[in-house]
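Researcher: We plan to redesign the surface later, but first we want a full-length starting point. Tokens attached.
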């Protein structure tokens, strides 16, 4: 019996000439038979959603440690917000939505427990052993650390998704990648070229998402006060417009209405500024995008300045708040002490990690894969001390 095949879901006709196209993908490291109903980027997205590193995002810190409250963003809800923003912008710019969604959903898979504090501590522990960087680790998760297929390690994603995950990369890591895979995702850091527009977009959507949702989480935590937010020009401007449309609005509803406007303003700004930049550069295709002198997914200069001011505010008032600083110091201690115990007693690692000959990298991979609460339980089990309360 002939297999009935649904019509192609790759709406190529709707894509801009400079968008990524699954049919022209640079391919996967291990050849696969095409799926009957899904394009290559849909398939990447589906592989990401079903992998275990994706499920662990729900118990990993964004800014606030997972046990501090149920309503704060976690890596998972942050990731979903990035995917939503990136898809909306991609559709407006006629980029490939499935690719941008795949990159967005995988962009934080390499994050350690406890957010940036965890990464900094692990990077310091790995200083003599090649360092630790979460973008590079995201690529490692999808290339090496997921074990779900009979024929190969990793998820065997397309080049375009992998290109998007490697947002930053040291020259040393880029050279190492290039040796293992000539012309692979490390190459552009050696050539100083750019990734495709879907990758540029996922990156900017990440920035829009965290800058905006961290205001909400900051107020929810009580570490930021509504009155302080007037110091952020972008917030103040949209709070004035919210109050002019809804006189007397206050409290949470005023906060949400303002945040909604701040978010929309950034999204529409990126769409307009990027459309103009693409117009000026007029790239013939994705390879012309990759070699273009300037990034093409951009804020307007005015919004870039507003966004920088918002970032500066969050650094000064939230990320460096004494309470956050204190939690981060405890988190770094957890990671440092776990690393030291595993170095001394590798038998405490999970057997598949203990069996590896690259001892320090195996420890870093193991710790990076932990959720906040697993790291805390493991730290308590191995040291007999409890540095943070584990809520659940
Ligand atoms: Mg992120």
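Model: Full-length starting sequence:
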């Amino acid at each position: 019996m002939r297999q009935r095949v649904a019509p192609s879901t790759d709406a190529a006709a709707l894509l801009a000439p400079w968008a990524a196209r699954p049919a022209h993908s640079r391919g996967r490291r291990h050849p696969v038979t095409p799926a009957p109903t899904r394009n290559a980027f849909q398939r990447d997205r589906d592989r990401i959603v079903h992998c275990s590193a994706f499920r662990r995002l729900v118990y990993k810190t964004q800014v606030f440690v997972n046990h501090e409250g149920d309503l704060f963003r976690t890596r998972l809800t942050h990731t979903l917000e990035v995917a939503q923003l990136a898809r909306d912008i991609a559709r407006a710019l006629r980029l490939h939505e499935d690719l941008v969604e795949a990159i967005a959903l995988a962009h934080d898979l390499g994050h350690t427990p406890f957010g940036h504090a965890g990464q900094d501590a692990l990077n310091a522990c790995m200083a003599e052993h090649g360092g630790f960087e979460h973008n590079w680790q995201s690529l490692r998760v999808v290339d090496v650390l997921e074990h779900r297929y009979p024929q190969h390690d990793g998820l065997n994603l397309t080049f375009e998704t992998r290109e998007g995950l490697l947002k930053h990369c040291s020259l040393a890591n880029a050279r190492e990648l290039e040796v293992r895979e000539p012309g692979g995702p490390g190459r552009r850091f050696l050539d100083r070229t750019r990734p495709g527009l879907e990758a540029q977009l996922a990156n900017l959507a990440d920035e829009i998402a965290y800058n905006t949702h961290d205001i909400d989480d900051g107020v929810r935590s009580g570490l930021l006060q509504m009155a302080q937010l007037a110091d952020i020009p972008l917030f103040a401007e949209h709070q004035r417009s919210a109050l002019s449309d809804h006189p007397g609005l206050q409290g949470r509803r005023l906060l949400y209405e303002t945040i909604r406007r701040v978010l929309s303003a950034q999204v529409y700004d990126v769409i307009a500024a990027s459309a103009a930049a693409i117009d000026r550069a007029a790239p013939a295709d994705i390879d012309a995008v990759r070699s273009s002198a300037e990034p093409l997914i951009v804020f307007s200069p005015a919004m870039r300045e507003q966004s920088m001011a918002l970032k500066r505010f969050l650094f000064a008032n939230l990320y460096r708040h004494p309470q956050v600083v204190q939690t981060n110091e405890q988190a770094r201690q957890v990671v440092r002490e776990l690393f030291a115990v595993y170095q001394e007693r590798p038998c405490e690692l999970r057997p598949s990690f203990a069996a590896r000959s690259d001892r320090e990298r195996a420890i870093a991979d193991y710790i990076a894969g932990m959720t906040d609460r697993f790291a805390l339980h493991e730290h308590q089990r191995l040291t007999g001390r409890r540095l943070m309360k584990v809520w659940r």
